[in-house]
Amino acid sequence: MRWENLTDDDTGASDAHGRTPDAALFGADAVTTRTVDTPEFRGVTFHEIRARSIVNRVPGASRMPFEWTVNPYRGCTHACVYCFARNTHSYLDLDTGLGFDSQIVVKVNAPQLLRHRLASRTWHGEHIAMGTNVDCYQRAEGRYRLMPGIIEALRDYANPFSILTKGTLVLRDLDLLRQAAEVTEVGISVSVGFVDRELWRTVEPGTPAPERRLDVVRALADAGIGCGVLMAPVIPFLGDRPEQLRETVRAIARAGATSVTPLVLHLRPGAREWFMAWLETHHPYLVRRYERLYAHGAYAPTWYQRRVTRQVHELAQEFGIGPTRSGAARRIQERAEPAPGRAGPEPTQLTLL
Ligand code: SF4
């Protein structure tokens, strides 16, 4: 495995010291590999890393609506077939298919590194986004408990932050999130692209069920921490029928989400091959349609994205999902403009979740 010359995430972020993506994050002598033989983690291997940096800068040219990210894990046991972070595993000479789902890199010193960085005189309290590469509340977090230390550091330095997740584990840290929200801006978003259980079981096999994720939205709302929903991905021909969109937006509204932002499936290299192989197995009759829809790259055509976005916005209005409250925390699914001349996704494509 190559454990040096890494960038932290597939946004091409450089680290907080301005080092380029070529800068080494991990020392080759700092890797401890553990295979955990408990039923919960059977078949999962953890690579415990002492990272050299944890706060990463998104390049200025990026379309991401945030500049700084923290990602304590690489790889994700949530195992979404379409996950765009899959390709990042190839940087480690790890497999981007099953390897991404089961070979998890854990930056065990993430809380200490973050606290150190926040204390630095060169840090100016910028917003930090989490869950931008892989899910920081994936199942591994139940074992390693890195997020409490991370949130505590952010709370202690009153540093604004946002989290995007599919993990119900975020509720474990509800008290800490509440404490942080008293001193700084905290934005939580949950990703729910559809509520179709059959689709969920096959395409997001390691994730909590959509209704459990919506319970998270509800619990956060009850706790006074507004939560938006990133309705992602909307999967063409499998999750985009009008009645499916309606059912999903209605469930999101009932959960008390402060906002809903649709995002159509995109298929970057790494994710594309894995997703198409899955499609061939589960829905072979759709392969040709997908090849046509994604003939020009990673994104579905603009007309298709616009149609889905319009439908969801109309449904959101019908079900009374309001815009993000004025003064509420910045949420990481805010819209971003496509780069000039590029047919990007309708809402920002910042996230895999
Ligand atoms: S899409 Fe998100 S939750 Fe799913 S595997 Fe990727 S990082 Fe994990």
From TrEMBL:
Q: Where is the composition biased (Low complexity)?
A: 338-347
The segments labelled Disordered in the record are 1-21, 325-353
Where does the signal sequence lie? none
Q: Which UniProt keywords apply?
A: Iron, Iron-sulfur, Metal-binding
- Residue ranges annotated as compositionally biased, kind Acidic residues, are 1-12
What InterPro entries does its record include? Answer: Elp3/MiaA/NifB-like_rSAM (IPR006638), MJ0683-like (IPR040086), rSAM (IPR007197), rSAM_sf (IPR058240)
A Pfam family this chain is assigned to: Radical_SAM
Q: Does the keyword NADP apply?
A: no
Task: Give TM segment ranges.
Answer: none
Domain Radical SAM core stretches: 62-310
Presence of keyword Metal-binding: yes
Annotated NCBIfam families: rSAM_Rv2578c
Name by which UniProt lists this protein: Rv2578c family radical SAM protein
